[in-house]
Recover the amino acids of this structure.
């Protein structure tokens, strides 16, 4: 990376400071000013010289647009240092895949990686160099709008997805493979633990829990070679992440050895002031640079203060140089000094984007991401049936979910379009029934009329995509009232009802799952959503998804998650009133982590262990026979959990340690074998040492985190 060092030596301090600034596309002359704005806009108080020396752009895409911006910029940059083009490519670029919480339900790392690779191909040819993904924040609170962006509540599974997404985005040769983009893992750290599920709210937890549950997925992304890290808006141990030296400098850079680029989230450096941990922009800039944050996104603390901070000796220029060098080295690694346009290609863009192949992968992943939650002899539908399709999502392109800014709701395959691929349209009766949150008498009448003509009714219900995502938190996580009323109204007809749900968070399903015969969770399934849902509802695909975040019995339970501790007064023993319970609702979630049904059924045989003793140098094989006892082929995701019965600190009742997807034909049996090693049993002790203890363990295997077979074994030291 000699070119970077040579450039650094030629840069003036003004040029160095401006290199740390990231601006939205609207600041750039060559821009069409249609770039994505994803945060509060404020007067930046910056001049043209600063823009001409800024280091990177966010929210821009489109081969021609990016080339226009880059060309105009390079004409005005003294040293000809190109811009880094960054954007949020979270679950697809133009071909939109299911939201990450849906992809999480697929448990399919290969397809997850493939979706990221396709997103990278489409983004790179459109001029994007870096994506602000994967988001790997562990989530346990469905009130938070951004649970849709995570893969769920388990650190082990989130880590697998983090690695898969980074592999897909980056490939293994970022310099020469211009079909890939650099990844940026976010939001460091523990953004998903915002108190009360309210976005940007305080996060407070022990360092032990932070390391045990919230940090593993970020570490997994970085171990996979992720090039960048984005800071979180929240505090960690009462210090805003973007100014948190212990978190960034000591842990991320020193302990983990991360020497890539750290970027603040939108305005997060200036927000150190609002947090009350900086007097002014000058102090915010000082704290953030000392914490090791290289790029300031969309606030001017650095450009307004770093020069003075260096010249008055408050911070050393070497600290500034460090950050500038990391940014230049990323540009060099991406080959931008040789070719500032990298993969941008107008002709190729036309050919690659939304290709048939890409859409086919999106359709397959959407089908694997849907979760069958209930089915009492209604699904799959028969193609000859007279079917009423009713609801605000019956014909609605708003199925891409948040963070799909380049996607098109127009070309998204709507549910009714999917149905018409499968059946005679003359037998399909479509009615809106209501809007997301409002209803008219006429809508209801049309819905009843459609239902009266049908043998079976499919209700397509859910949240508007603006009810999910950043700053879209809900305290009441039920379906909107009008939709519950629609269910009640249609139920009066006494016909079989299947519900398809479009939502970005676990919902309180009272009034839905207890009132109907079948429920398919479709989340926001993306561009091919309607086709995938039709594949599933008509049996051309068999549901196999399993939820990776608990669906609460009621929002009053939240946070509720499977890997919880036993407490000193667990509900089920001894049976007295003085135990950990509610007077009015159960402790258990409505649907547990790992839950999902199929059109077939699976039987689990006895659990056998190769040994009931484990040492640091041996392993135990855990085997179980799984049989397809139904009459259609299907996939089953077999899950293995472990419990450390006695630890130096409290240990979860269950921890996911392995899983395997198997495909079984009717009547077929497969023996599934897992391996347990001592390494899988390590945890953070009270002194934060990461190690295992001798003692008793229980291994569980089953179709979800509740219906399991178990056996004990001991770890002998
Ligand atoms: C937003 C989000 C972050 C996103 C960034 C740039 O505020 O928090 O996830 O990458 O701004 O759009």
């Amino acid at each position: 990376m000699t070119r970077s060092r040579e450039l650094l030596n030629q840069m003036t301090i003004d040029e160095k400071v401006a290199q740390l600034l990231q601006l939205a596309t609207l600041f750039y002359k060559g821009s069409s000013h249609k770039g994505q704005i994803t945060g509060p806009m404020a007067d930046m108080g910056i001049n043209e010289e600063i823009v001409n020396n800024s280091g990177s752009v966010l929210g821009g895409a489109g081969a021609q647009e990016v080339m226009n911006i880059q060309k105009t910029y390079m004409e005005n940059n003294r040293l000809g240092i190109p811009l880094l083009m960054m954007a949020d490519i979270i679950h697809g670029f133009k071909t939109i895949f299911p939201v990450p919480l849906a992809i999480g339900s697929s448990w399919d790392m290969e397809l997850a990686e493939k979706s990221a690779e396709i997103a990278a191909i489409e983004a790179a040819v459109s001029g994007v160099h870096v994506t602000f993904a994967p988001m790997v924040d562990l989530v346990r609170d469905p009130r938070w709008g951004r649970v849709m962006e995570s893969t769920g509540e388990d650190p082990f599974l989130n880590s697998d997805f983090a690695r898969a997404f980074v592999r897909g985005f980056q490939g293994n040769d970022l310099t020469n493979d211009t079909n890939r983009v650099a990844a940026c893992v976010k939001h460091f750290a523990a953004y998903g633990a915002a108190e009360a599920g309210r976005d940007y709210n305080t996060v407070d937890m022990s360092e032990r829990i932070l390391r045990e549950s919230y940090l593993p997925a970020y570490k997994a992304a970085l171990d996979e070679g992720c090039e960048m890290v984005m800071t979180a808006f929240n505090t960690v141990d009462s210090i805003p992440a973007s100014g948190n030296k212990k978190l960034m400098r000591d842990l991320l850079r020193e302990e983990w050895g991360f020497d890539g680029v750290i970027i603040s989230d939108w305005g997060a450096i200036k927000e150190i002031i609002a947090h009350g941990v900086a007097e002014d922009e000058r102090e915010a800039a000082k704290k953030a640079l000392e914490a090791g944050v290289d790029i300031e996104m969309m606030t001017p603390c650095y450009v307004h203060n770093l020069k003075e901070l260096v010249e008055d000796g408050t911070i050393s220029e070497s600290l500034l140089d460090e950050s500038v060098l990391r940014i230049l080295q990323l540009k060099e690694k991406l080959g931008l000094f040789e070719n500032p346009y990298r993969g941008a290609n107008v002709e190729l863009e036309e050919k690659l984007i939304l290709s048939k192949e890409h859409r086919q992968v999106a359709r397959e992943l959407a089908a694997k991401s849907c979760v069958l939650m209930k089915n009492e002899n209604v699904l799959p539908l028969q193609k000859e049936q007279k079917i009423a399709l009713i609801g605000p999502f019956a014909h609605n392109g708003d199925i891409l979910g948040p963070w799909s800014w380049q996607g098109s709701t127009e070309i998204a395959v709507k549910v009714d379009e999917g149905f018409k691929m499968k059946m005679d349209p003359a037998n399909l009766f479509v009615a809106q029934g209501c809007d997301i949150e409002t209803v008219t008498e006429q809508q209801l009448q049309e819905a009843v009329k459609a239902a009266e003509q049908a043998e079976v009714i499919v209700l397509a219900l859910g949240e508007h995509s603006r009810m999910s995502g950043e700053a879209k938190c809900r305290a009441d996580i039920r379906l909107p009232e009008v939709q519950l009323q629609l269910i009640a109204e249609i139920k009066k007809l006494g016909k079989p009802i299947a519900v398809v749900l479009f939502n970005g968070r676990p919902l309180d399903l009272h009034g839905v799952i207890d009132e109907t015969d079948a429920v398919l969770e479709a989340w926001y399934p993306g561009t091919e959503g309607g086709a995938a849902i039709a594949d599933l509802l008509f049996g051309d695909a068999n549901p196999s998804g399993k939820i990776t975040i608990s669906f609460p019995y009621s929002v009053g339970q939240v946070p509720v998650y499977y890997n919880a501790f036993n407490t000193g007064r667990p509900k089920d023993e001894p049976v007295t009133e003085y135990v950990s319970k509610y007077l009015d609702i159960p402790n258990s979630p409505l649907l547990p982590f790992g839950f999902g049904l199929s059109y077939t059924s699976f039987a689990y045989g006895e659990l056998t262990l190769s040994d009931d003793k484990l040492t640091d140098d041996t392993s135990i094989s855990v085997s179980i026979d799984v049989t397809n006892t139904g009459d259609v082929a299907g996939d089953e995701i077999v899950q293995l959990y472990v419990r450390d019965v006695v630890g130096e600190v409290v240990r979860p009742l269950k921890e996911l340690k392995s899983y395997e997807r198997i495909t079984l034909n009717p009547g077929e049996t497969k023996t599934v074998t897992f391996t347990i090693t001592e390494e899988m049993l390590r945890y953070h002790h009270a002194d934060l040492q990461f190690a295992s203890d001798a003692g008793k363990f229980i291994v569980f295997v089953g179709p979800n985190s509740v219906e399991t077979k178990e056996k004990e074994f001991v770890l002998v030291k």
